[in-house]
């Protein structure tokens, strides 16, 4: 099954990198969902929750403070101004 390749980065380094079935992000004009095969996209992010749904794993969640999201050929790059892990969620493996 095809998956998204996701990289989430902040000014101080990489937050998380891995594969996902779906990603949801707080776009400037509303919530956006990304799945395999999504058309190329560049979107500004606002404050809100970023969620990554992984195959066979607990979803990962962060609160982000702005940034942008890029999608091209099932590669998703999320660049955030600042980020905070949502408490109670599964810990995100650091990929430094």
TrEMBL record:
Membrane topology per the entry is: Peripheral membrane protein
- Alphabetized Pfam families for the sequence: ATP-synt_DE_N (PF02823)
Q: Chief subcellular site?
A: membrane
Q: Which UniProt keywords apply?
A: ATP synthesis, Cell membrane, CF(1), Hydrogen ion transport, Ion transport, Membrane, Transport
Cell membrane recorded as keyword: yes
Q: What quaternary arrangement does the UniProt entry report?
A: F-type ATPases have 2 components, CF(1) - the catalytic core - and CF(0) - the membrane proton channel. CF(1) has five subunits: alpha(3), beta(3), gamma(1), delta(1), epsilon(1). CF(0) has three main subunits: a, b and c.
Q: What is the protein name for this chain?
A: ATP synthase epsilon chain
Task: Please list every transmembrane segment annotated in the UniProt record, as residue ranges.
Answer: none
In which family does this protein belong, per the annotation?
Belongs to the ATPase epsilon chain family.
């Amino acid at each position: 099954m095809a998956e998204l390749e996701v990289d989430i980065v902040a000014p101080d380094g990489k937050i998380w990198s891995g594969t996902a079935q779906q990603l949801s992000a707080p776009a400037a004009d509303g919530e956006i969902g990304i799945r395999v095969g999504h058309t190329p996209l560049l979107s500004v992010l606002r404050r809100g929750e970023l969620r990554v749904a992984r195959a066979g794993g607990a979803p990962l969640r962060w609160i982000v403070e702005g940034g942008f999201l890029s999608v091209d050929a099932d590669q998703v790059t999320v660049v955030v101004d600042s980020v905070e892990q949502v408490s109670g969620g599964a810990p995100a493996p650091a990929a430094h």
